[in-house]
């Protein structure tokens, strides 16, 4: 994905997420692993802050990530002010932002770091991590909170045929954990070693893909399946 497409995609996805009601207030976040050669906006991110990480990040990488408190409705107009860059190098993790006002990455940066390192090491073609709050998937995770992962996948896959087509590796599930915590990040990493999409119960959904549209499509299909299960009264 070239740089122009990359930023256009973020803006378009932001519009859709807001319209669908999946990005209330400052909800939702994303990251995109950068190519060193293709990103020419580094100069605007000149405020540096050190980040703590509960797991060692050994991979050298740069991640373009939404800021803490950033709203998708504002990102539609100004991507750069609502994002920053996390750089992992020589065992140090630093965040570079455009000003002190935007001084921290998304509160879920640990999940993004762990997942992006896994992707770079195992699926380098995957650069996008997208997290949002689909209404029916969250309701589905409440309604069937005590079902096993196998049972949850059975319900979703049998709701509509497109689920298996778009999500061939099935769906991961993480129990309700403190947002932004190392526990959530570590449990999510376990799921993303098997799946390309994972539901954070009572919280939202996260997907990884080559580009933003592929990640969005997986979430959109799964959301439709959850809606069908809830409306059909199959259980």
Percent of residues in beta strands = 15-25%
Shape: globular
CATH architecture: 3-Layer(aba) Sandwich
In angstroms, what is the radius of gyration? 17 Å
User: CATH H-level name... which superfamily?
Assistant: Class II aldolase/adducin N-terminal domain
Count structural domains: 1
SS element count, helices? 8
CATH class: Alpha Beta
Description:
The protein has 8 helices and 9 strands. By secondary structure, the protein is α+β, with helices and mostly antiparallel strands. The chain has a single domain, classed as 3-Layer(aba) Sandwich (L-fuculose-1-phosphate Aldolase). Strands 2-5-4-3-1-6-9-8-7 form a 9-stranded mixed sheet, with helices on both faces. Helix 3 (109-122) packs parallel to helix 7 (182-192) and helix 4 (135-143) crosses helix 8 (212-232). The radius of gyration is 17 Å and the shape is globular. The mean pLDDT is 92.
Set down the secondary structure blueprint.
Layout: H1 3-20, E1 29-33, E2 47-50, E3 61-66, H2 72-75, E4 83-89, E5 92-97, H3 109-122, E6 128-132, H4 135-143, H5 149-159, H6 162-166, E7 172-174, H7 182-192, E8 197-200, E9 204-209, H8 212-232
Parallel strand pairs: 7-8
Antiparallel strand pairs: 1-3, 1-6, 2-5, 3-4, 4-5, 6-9, 8-9
Helix pairs in contact: 3-7, 4-8, 5-8
Gist of the model:
Helices cover about 40% and strands about 20% of the residues. It has about 240 residues and is of the alpha+beta class. It has a single domain, classed as L-fuculose-1-phosphate Aldolase (3-Layer(aba) Sandwich), CATH 3.40.225.10.
List keywords for this structure.
235 residues, L-fuculose-1-phosphate Aldolase, 9-stranded mixed β-sheet, 20% strand
């Amino acid at each position: 994905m070239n740089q122009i497409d990359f930023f256009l995609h973020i803006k378009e996805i932001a519009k859709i997420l807001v319209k669908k009601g999946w990005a209330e207030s400052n909800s939702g976040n994303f990251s995109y692993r950068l190519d060193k050669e293709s990103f020419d906006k580094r100069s605007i991110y000149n405020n540096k802050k050190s980040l703590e990480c509960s797991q060692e990040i050994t991979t050298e990488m740069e991640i373009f990530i939404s800021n803490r408190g950033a709203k998708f409705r504002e990102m539609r107009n100004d991507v750069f002010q609502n994002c920053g860059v996390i750089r992992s190098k020589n065992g140090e993790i630093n965040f570079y932002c455009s000003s002190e006002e935007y001084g921290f990455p998304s509160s879920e940066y640990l999940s993004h770091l762990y997942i992006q390192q896994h992707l770079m090491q195992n699926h380098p073609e995957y650069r996008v991590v997208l997290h949002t709050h689909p209404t029916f998937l969250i309701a589905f995770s409440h309604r069937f909170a005590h079902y096993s992962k196998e049972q949850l996948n059975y319900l979703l896959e049998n709701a509509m045929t497109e689920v298996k087509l778009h999500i061939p590796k099935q769906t991961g599930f993480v129990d309700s954990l403190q947002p932004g915590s190392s526990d959530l990040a570590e449990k999510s990493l376990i799921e993303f070693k098997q799946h390309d999409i994972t539901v954070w119960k009572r919280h939202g959904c996260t997907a990884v893909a080559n580009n933003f549209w592929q990640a969005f499509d997986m979430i959109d299909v799964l959301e439709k399946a959850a809606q069908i299960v809830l409306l059909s009264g199959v259980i």
